[in-house]
Model the fold of this input.
Amino acid sequence: MVIKATRRKEPMGTVAKVISGYAFKSAEFCESGIPVIKIKNIQLGEVDCTEMQCVPEQYLSIDSKYHVHKGDILISLTGSHINQPNSVVGRVARYKKGAPRALLNQRAGKVIIRRPELFDSGFLFYQLFDENVRRDIAAFANGAANQANVSPSQIESLNIQLPPLLVQRKIAAILSAYDDLVENNLRRIKILEEMAQNLYREWFVKFRFPDHQHTRFIDSSLGRIPEGWEVSVLGEHLIALESGKRPKGGAKDLEFGVPSVGAENIFGIGKHKYQSEKYVSYEYFEAMRNGVVKDGDVALYKDGAYIGRSAYFRDSFPHAQFCVNEHVFLLRTTGKRLTQNILYLWLQELDTISAIRATNANAAQPGVNQVGVNGLPLIVPPLDIVEHFHKLAEPYLALIISLAKRNEALHRTRDLLLPKLISGEVDVSELDITIPEEVAA
Done:
């Protein structure tokens, strides 16, 4: 179906300008202050605000074009794997509502709309987000494979669709509706995570479990604990502690195969960056003895800058079949006095993370080994407490995964619909669509 409204293509530079961020010096970064968006923060479709470096507040006085506000479109201008659709170079993200005020670092690009009377920023974002357009941006890149660059002027030379403004806003409204649903689910996931962790903390840290008022407390090597509870070590409750591997020379840039998850995807429950995955061949996967993920596995980031982070792979999320590489431990419990649910929630506690990091004996290349992980001390409750806790916590954790799966389905649907809307294959010109105020602004 061909769209009825008149369409044309023009170089993006006729309606928008692309700039590179401010050239901050390494010595100017500090632990607190104004967050700075670097290339690594520009993920596919979103800005990752969890690990942002800062500069002193005096830098708020720099040119306003380097300030990042809600709705701004950001593009990574430097990266690697220029022939891959999910390469670092050419990644496009939009700064979301509620994110902190921030400044833009060099080689992180920002799009500035020149002709708002002709072009809608939301429509431009989704057009740039289209996989085919991102491939075109990556094709501009020059330099070595691990340090490829694209210039603002090259991006401005892209020929882009320029339908009537009302059509643009209708398309942006349709696509943003999917993203709004995703954001709502993410908020629900955050609340559920907090509820599960707070429940764990009440029972297993503060020992305020049912009928605790009538429980006698005794001294232990880890302080006062309820009678009937025991001080143990993690290894006594595990049936598996194993890491994965990759083919010699690392996972190749295969477009198909079995997903191989690395440390970059070890950051909680119901969270996964599909664009960060690599693949191993089916033949290689079938020959793996360790590192094949089983449903319910808890994963631990074992070496690198963020040792101690963990993830929970369950209910076929993020995949029904996948593996991990050599930077990740998989942990499986006996399921008796330590379940996978309790193990995951225990690993999320700051004291546990600190204990894991304390086992690191190599400052040059941080990492933990099996001996250190197996020897981690913990307090285990009686079986009846474990079973009671499971009944209360399981619905929270299961719903988190269910919402994460819905979000992935929403992303897939949006990405299938996006090129059809942008190209005009799907006609929206006659549709009666309510355009949200933010889209129309």
Observations:
- The first helix runs from residue 121 to 129.
- The chain is about 30% helix and 20% strand.
- The first strand starts at residue 9 and ends at 11.
